[in-house]
Design a protein that fits this description.
The protein is α+β, with helices and mostly antiparallel strands. The protein has two domains: 240 residues, Roll (Ubiquitin-like (UB roll)), CATH 3.10.20.30; 240 residues, Uridine Diphospho-n-acetylenolpyruvylglucosamine Reductase, domain 3 (2-Layer Sandwich). It has 18 helices and 18 strands. Strands 2-1-5-3-4 form a five-stranded mixed β-sheet. Helix 3 crosses helix 6 and helix 16 runs antiparallel to helix 17. The protein is globular, with a radius of gyration of 23 Å.
């Protein structure tokens, strides 16, 4: 559906009326002639289409910047935002990022180079305290077929050494990067002043009249629909600030429907409730995908192998569903493990959408541990053959007082392992208990043979996941040695 849009592209204000579901990559290349933004995989895997995007943070309202994959971004989402392409970055000639790439011989055929330059520029903009590890993570969503990555990593390390003392404040940081030539001055001057959206005052939420598509990060939708046909009105959930917030009250964490995977793992509220959970962020896709993929989208996609779905099941999440049945707005609550009806089918009815996910904060009266396990053909950036998560508490004697176990890839829907949980509750953790629990878990699942593994392999994986969860819960004893004896 056509809609009035207002946003900034590089150093100019754009005011247009166009189809809101158009993919930004296509609009940049075909309508604007900005072909430095490359079309590679068109699935968010290669990073060749990377652009910089400025927006207001939903928590603080401050202007923030990040790298965004334009192949998974809808034109309608640009309203009130600022996009900078490789042409904008290089408007005044070679930047220090480009020079670092050239000095290290990090560009050969050059097709992927614009994406790497944008990603590294984004890291200098919003990477906080710069580190070599951080710079490497910043380009984990960019692929190169020529160089073998060593030269690109050396270029990244050189940039960290040169710009390691950048100010923390976004405004001061942009000013310093402008003085250093990383960002042209004429673009930097407007990066902290986003344009007012043309849709200001209009509802952008899923209940909007006439909406035929409720779209989150688009990381699944645009892969399946790379050239969307004209639609009716689209509701972009990330344009409703309330759906992008993480809050905690009375021991309940509320995760808005458009909270991204990155938002979740970087949240101080989440990290405080589940210490150490941030270590698993790297198991979920690449950084550019994590900044876009939403929690609600992950569960509503209803893939039996969704990684975040497995995490949320173990956290015993409840889904708050927004409904407009009978023309009356309201909501209903549903435990996440009851949300999935069958393969890729959820409990959502016509006129309903996910509003939030609610997670209870552990009481803190017992030792609580969270663990996530995943096996895939590639260690990173791949769909799992199987996954599992566990949230468990044990008393001072090592007796399990509370436990939630999830499993993905071992049945038509993501699942809670209720029988295994029931067996473990009240048990002390030892090798015999672990072996019995692993056997029960394998019996609970109904995997199939497919390209990612045979059913027997998946059952074995799940058994070993149970061992890993219990080893993590009982660090004081050498459970791994007992199990392998």
């Amino acid at each position: 559906m056509e809609r009035e849009l207002r946003f900034r592209l590089n150093n100019r204000l754009v005011e247009i009326r166009d189809r809101e579901e158009i993919v930004v990559l296509d609009w940049l290349r075909r309508e604007q002639g900005l072909t430095g933004t490359k079309e590679g995989c068109r699935e968010g895997d290669c990073g060749a289409c990377m652009v910089l995007m400025g927006e207001h943070d939903p928590q603080s309202g401050a202007v923030t910047w990040k790298g965004a994959l334009s192949c998974l971004l809808a034109l309608g989402e640009l309203d009130g935002r600022h996009i900078v392409t490789i042409e904008g970055i290089g408007k005044q000639g070679l930047t220090p990022v480009m020079e670092a790439m050239l000095d290290e011989g990090a560009s050969q055929c050059g097709f992927c180079t614009p994406g790497f330059v944008v990603s590294l520029t984004a890291y200098l903009l919003c990477g906080g305290k710069l580190t070599v590890d951080g710079a490497t993570r910043a380009i984990e969503g960019n692929l190169c077929r020529c160089t073998g990555y060593g030269s690109i990593q050396r270029a990244a390390a050189h940039l960290v050494e040169r710009f390691g003392s950048l100010p923390e404040s976004m405004g001061e940081r942009i000013a310093e990067l402008s003085r250093s030539g990383v960002i042209p001055g004429e673009i930097a001057s407007s990066m902290m002043d986003l344009p007012a959206p043309a849709s200001s005052g209009q509802a952008a939420a899923p209940e909007r009249q006439g909406a035929v598509l409720t779209l989150g990060g688009g990381t699944d939708y645009f892969v399946r629909n790379p050239d969307p046909a004209p639609l009716g009105e689209v509701a972009f959930v990330d344009r409703e600030p309330g759906l992008r917030r993480i809050t905690e009250a009375n021991g309940i964490i509320t995760l808005g429907a458009s909270v991204s995977v990155q938002d979740f793992f970087e949240s101080t509220i989440v990290r405080s409730a589940f210490p150490g959970i941030e270590q698993y962020e790297g198991d979920f896709a690449s950084l550019p995908i994590r900044t876009r993929a939403t929690l609600a989208g992950n569960i509503t996609n209803a893939s039996p192998i969704g990684d975040m779905t497995s995490v949320l099941l173990a956290l015993r999440a409840t889904v708050r569903i927004r409904t407009s049945a009978g023309g009356r707005a309201g909501s209903r609550m549903l435990p996440l493990d009851q949300y999935f009806l069958s393969y890729r089918t959820t409990s959502l009815e016509a006129g309903e959408s996910v509003e939030a996910l609610l997670v209870k904060v552990p009481s803190g009266q017992a030792r609580t541990s969270f663990n996530f396990e995943k096996v895939s053909k590639r260690k990173h950036l791949d769909i799992a053959s199987a996954n599992s998560a566990c949230l468990a508490s044990a008393d001072a004697n090592g007796v399990i007082s509370e436990i939630a176990l999830s499993a993905g890839g071992v049945g038509p829907v993501p699942m809670r392992l209720r029988k295994t949980e029931g067996y473990l509750l009240g048990k002390s953790i030892d090798a015999e208990t672990a072996r019995k629990a692993a056997s029960l878990a394998a019996a609970e699942c109904t995997p199939i043979d497919d390209v990612r593994g045979r059913a027997s392999y998946r059952r074995t994986l799940l058994s070993r996941f149970i061992w890993a969860h219990l080893i993590r819960l009982a660090p004081e004893r050498d459970l791994a040695k007992e199990l392998l004896a």
